[in-house]
Design a protein that fits this description.
- This protein has helices spanning 2-13, 17-34, 36-49, 55-81, 84-89, 97-105, 120-130, 148-155, 167-178, 211-216, 252-269; strands at residues 91-95, 109-113, 135-139, 160-164, 182-185, 196-201, 204-209, 221-230, 237-243.
- Helix 8 (148-155) links the parallel strand 3 and strand 4 (160-164).
- The chain has 292 residues and is α/β, with parallel strands linked by helices.
- The longest helix is centred in the N-terminal third of the chain and has 27 residues, at 55-81.
- It has a domain at 86-273: Glycerol-3-phosphate (1)-acyltransferase (3-Layer(aba) Sandwich).
- 48% of the residues lie in helices and 18% in strands.
- It has a 7-stranded mixed beta sheet, sandwiched between helices.
């Protein structure tokens, strides 16, 4: 099955990017009408975000989110099967690379933080190719078990490695940072029970990981947010990099809130490219009141 999937992905990855994204847009429109549960969740999450002024604008954004999400899914075929040099060529604009250079020149480890925004797989591959040291990305195994080997084979190559989202993976990431290497963490993944704290995310309590803030406070580590923005009309991608905003204190709740505040700002910049269909508000542990 894995070989068959890899062959299929390789063939899809040969489709020119504008056409591949066009197919994704069409599939997204279809999904908007057929995937009622995901549509309802995305609508509720966008309402909570207050990024739209009325129901008409909300529906328009939900449709755009479905289209961008399907584009992202098809682009994984490129991220997992095309060469790193080809992926680098897809990035037409890069902003904030000076923050990477400053950390490298200081001999700092790089904690690269990205939400479920834009195409983080392609952006991660670009970073892995450009950095002078290995990059380790944390991941959660896909629900489709036979897809995991294809995904890992696509990510674990050249200067890229993966670490599972468990204690062993955390140790792997900590070791990489201590070695002044780079890691990628998605801060808006819902952690397991007992592994997070409650913090507001767009006005609603969301069970939030503490790992990102704890890693960011390690000695000689520079935390940077990044996003692989999808440019319009199949033109490629833009990489955006910026320092984490706010001062971490070691207080788990306060630091988790700072991380969520940063995620909100990035989502507000590129709302249609955020995975609003993700169940960010899953229940874990004792949920507090809405007013925290």
């Amino acid at each position: 099955m894995q070989k068959l999937v890899y062959i299929l992905f390789s063939l899809l990855a040969l489709i020119p990017l504008p056409l591949l994204q066009g197919i994704g847009s069409l599939l997204g429109r279809l999904g908007f009408h057929l995937a009622s549960n995901e549509r309802k969740r995305a609508t509720e999450n966008i309402h909570s975000s207050k990024l739209t002024a009325n129901d008409q604008d909300t529906e328009k954004l939900v449709k755009a989110v479905f289209a961008e999400t399907m584009k992202n899914g098809l682009e994984l075929t490129i991220a997992w099967t095309r060469s790193s040099k080809h992926i680098v060529s897809l990035f037409k604009e890069v902003y904030g690379w000076e923050h990477i250079e400053a950390a490298v020149n200081k001999g700092q480890g790089l904690l690269l933080i990205t939400p479920h925004l834009g195409n983080y797989d392609l952006a991660g591959r670009y970073l892995s190719e450009k950095l002078p040291f290995p990059l380790t990305a944390m991941y959660r195994p896909p629900k489709i078990s036979w897809l995991e080997s294809v995904m890992n084979n696509g990510r674990v190559r050249d200067n890229g490695y993966t670490a599972p989202a468990n204690m062993q993976g955390v140790k792997q990431v900590v070791r990489a940072l201590k070695n002044h290497e780079a890691t990628i963490v998605l801060p808006d993944q819902v952690p397991g029970e007992g592994e997070g704290v409650w913090a507001n995310f767009f006005g609603r309590p969301a069970y939030t990981m503490t790992l990102a803030s704890r890693l960011a406070m390690m000695p000689k580590v520079t935390p940077l947010f990044f996003c692989g923005e999808r440019l319009s009309k199949g033109r490629g991608f833009a990489l955006h990099i910026a320092p984490l905003e706010g001062s971490l204190t070691g207080n788990r709740e306060q630091d988790a809130q700072i991380i969520n505040n940063n995620v909100e700002k990035w989502v507000t910049r590129f709302p249609s490219q955020y995975l609003f269909g993700y169940n960010r508000y899953k229940h874990r542990g004792n949920k507090p009141s809405e007013n925290i």
